[in-house]
What we know:
Blueprint lengths: L2 H9 L5 H16 L4 H10 L4 H12 L33 H15 L16 H13 L28 E2 L6 H11 L2 H8 L5 H6 L3 H22 L4 E2 L2 H12 L8 H19 L12 H6 L1 E9 L2 E9 L1 E5 L6 H9 E3 L13 E8 L3 E7 L1 E4 L4 E4 L9 E3 L8 H29 L10 H13 L28 H13 L4 H4 L19 H5 L12 H37 L11 E13 L2 E10 L4 E6 L2 E4 L2 H8 L6 E10 L15 H7 L3 H27 L31 H11 L1 H9 L2 H7 L1 H21 L13 H7 L4 H12 L8 H16 L7 H29 L3 H19 L9 H23 L4 H23 L5 H15 L9 H15 L19 H17 L7
Parallel strand pairs: 1-2, 5-8
Antiparallel strand pairs: 3-4, 3-7, 6-7, 8-16, 9-10, 11-12, 12-13, 12-16, 13-14, 14-15
Helix pairs in contact: 2-3, 2-4, 3-4, 10-11, 10-12, 10-23, 15-20, 16-20, 24-29, 24-31, 25-27, 26-27, 27-28, 27-30, 28-29, 29-30, 31-32, 31-37, 32-33, 32-34, 33-34, 33-35, 34-36
Amino acid sequence: MTAELQAEAVERGTQSPGADCQMLLNQLREITGIQDPSCLHNALKAANGDLTEAVTILTEEQVKEPVQDAVAAEPSNGEGSAAGKGLQTDVIDLAPDNKDDLQAVIALSLMESPKVQTAERDANRSVNMAHETSAAENKNRSKRKRCEVWGESPNQNNWRRVDDWPVGLKNIGNTCWFSAVIQSLFQLPEFRRLVLGYTLPQSVLENCRSRNEKRNIAFMQELQCLFALMLGTHRRFVDPTAALELLREAFRTAEEQQQDVSEFTHKLLDWLEDAFQLAVNVNSPGDKSENPMVQLFYGTFLTEGIHEGKTFSKIEAFGQYPLQVNGYRDLTECLEGAMVEGEIDEKATTQSVKYGQERWFTKLPPVLTFELSRFEFNQSLGQPEKIHTKLEFPQIIYMDRYLYSSKEAIQKKREEIRLLKEQIAVLQEKLERYMQYGSGPTRFPLPDMLQYVLEFVTAKLPADGPSTQESPVAPSEPQAEPRVLDGPLLQNSALKMEDAEKPEDAASAPADTPPQPEPVSKPVHSSASLTRVPERPAPHVATEEEMSLVRTCLQRWRSEIEQDIQDLKDSIARISQSIEKMYCDPVLRQVPYRLHAVLVHEGQANAGHYWAYIYDQPRKSWLKYNDISVTESSWEELERDSFGGLKNASAYCLMYIKDKMPRYVADDDAGAGQFQKEVEDLPPELKHYIQEDNWRLEQEVEEWEGEQSCKIPQIEPSSASESQDFFSESGPDQPSACEPDLHSLSSQHAMMAKEQTAQAIANTADAYEKNGVEAALCKAFREEYSRLYLLAKETPTPQSDPRLQHVLVYFLQNKAPKRVVERTLLEQFADKNLSYDERSISIMKVAQAKLKEIGPDDVDMEEYKKWHEDYSLFRKVSVYLLTGLELYQNRKYQEALTYLVYAYQSNTTLLRKGPNRGADESLIALYRRKCLLKLNDVAAALFISSDEAHVADGVSILNELIIPCMHLIINNDISQDDLDAIEIMRNRWCSYLGQEDMDATLQMKLGELLPRLLDCSAEVIVLKEPPKIRPNSPYDLCSRFAAVMESIHEASTVTVK
């Protein structure tokens, strides 16, 4: 909110001293996180109304030891200075007089300055000096290392945009917050139109004298160029460096300090507002009613209340409306809590000291933005913390219940809800008496207690157990009444049982004979007596009539109690349902707002990553904008990442659009070609800018292709005995110059099956002698085909995979074309390595002649080649999987992870073509996940050891293996198990933040590592293939597969030679 809007708002309302006090209290609560009103009031009173002094008083009271750091240390690469996120700039309550004080306090405590670890705290130090220190340190900060996404992408096709699909934004170093904000704004058609159509009269340009005006105009021009590229570029992502550098430069100056991501966003919108103000109302610059930014994003609300018995009322403007998260379940509760504070008693006298206030929106903007306060300052730790509690929000929200025009109806409903909630509280209290019954510290549900007593009553002693005859009562006396089985009676009963086990001569001894002393070591109860104790408690003395009466009473009482409980629950549910439906009146559903964008933060308060979910109206789906990546998503994924409570990711900003204003919502019929239409309507200079960038892209592609064609393929030397599987294991994803030709690849598969082929030829001796070579070839062909067909139909087991035995088993299981199967089998008999004897040579020559007769019209050779490439890749996946499993069992986790990751990536390519094309994906993923978790434990242990060499090793493992593998996993279809594992690993490293016993150097290194660990979209990962391992025959591979699979299922280490 601007100062002009504040002044205009104040002019339209009355502001009492009590309201000013409450405003300061709100600011103080926001900064310190302390919720106790009396504590805040006393601190403000002791500071004579000085906000800075009040913060100092509260901080020193909470932290016993004086804080020595004037500038809080923060990891150098925390995305967007999220450390200060908890201290949201309150656009509603900050007056010009005290806003500078608040910024000074925040700057001194949360300034981004990663290398300044200690500095003497001075409350009177100027903000300029604090920022100069921060700027100097930031200048020398080590930048995060990343692959250059422009030139190191392995495939030039990754540079090109697909049709009209939205483009991403390049992360140029901790700028993911900028990507999320800009993408959310760009996808607003009205905002996009305003930016691209921005022009200034020449007279205004000539009269611009102030530095701020020139900077704002320059920023608008860069934003125009950026938006134009996002519309018409042929790239998959564009570079926002020019616009970002202007923002960064502004925050390096002394008077404009970086607070946090929220402050960045506010500053961005302020610049846009000021830039548009130059283009409207030139004659009256103070009037912002015609400013399109104000019309689009700003609204007003009325605050009415009572403070110390005096009523007050004021109108204020707002842009991004802040909402507290703590203590609320959903967005509706957040809004209700923000709109009503305290209790307003209209009947109160002037002497009343009650406080309360209500807020009512008097004007809602077309784009309604809510800031969710997900960060708070921890006084005991002296640093900000993120709030991870779950907060749900709807796709459609009706704002009628918060409008001033609905005040009378809503107040009545709020009173009804208050009374209903009081009823629920009374019912809950009654229900609690039933569910927590008893007078001692431990209480139980009353129905359960009655059931336990009923079970005791219905229990029966064993047939040989104590009976009425064994009772201590004499037989001549009348039967004693049943007694409660208390402690002394149990002891007497036990003694009697013990007496029953004594020898007869002892029993016949005189009654007055003194008992013989027993050894001290003898237990109280003999082993014989313990065997007579019943297995479960049961009444010892009770008549059948008594038992029947007790059972009847207990059953009746339990039924009555259960009915009472059910009635209470039904009443509570019925009243709760009435409360939920209180605002479902169609009259109160006339102002719908539809969710447009959700900005998400993942990580902790001082490090993390940002991305956005934006609803694409023409496509009717949610899209995820994650730096350079733009992918189709779903509401379910958005819920999982944005609601919070499950992991370190949660929404921090919600953007809603007024649903009944078509000009602000994308047209449903826009569809494909909408961006192209907008490009055609651009000014000539922006069209030319797009054309130049697209021309540069073509030049870059040509240069890259030229570099690739000049590279000499390096083929690793191998002996003749090892060369048979070299080509078959190279895979289709290698450069074309390195790939074997078609005949080499298929002949290698034929050579791998030569032993099976030789056996098939040996079985044709009779046919060869009687009918000649043609008949022998036909017989061998049919019998081999039948054998392989039956093998392909066998049910696989965990210890065997028939596809490894022969290429045709793989083809048959995946329903390869008949012509491909026949040619592959014929080529098997044409293998020149079958020159064993005259019959083999004759059959080989006939097969070779038949191969020459097969022309391009008979078999699609391109399809034939792809099938053999797939089988080659399948064997490579199998080899890498087995190697990775063996290495894992031998605890060589680093080497194992490389093989397993490559196996998974290659296997994914195969599985896209069919479920039987690749290996067991879940098995690879399981051991890849296990390797990652093991390596993460190793790296973490090395890192916190404080030994310099060990720390370097831990960082190396993290940078070279764990982080690249995590990025590969997340950027593909990720399972819940993988997601949980990655969350465990991230939490492990995030838990080290702010540890008092950790060295400052380690904290700095941790700050450099965490952004890469949390930000999984800013790097293009190039997977390096592990060393090749080639089996000599399919039988070797099959036996190895069986041994390894048996080993992992039985958890015993097996090494296969």
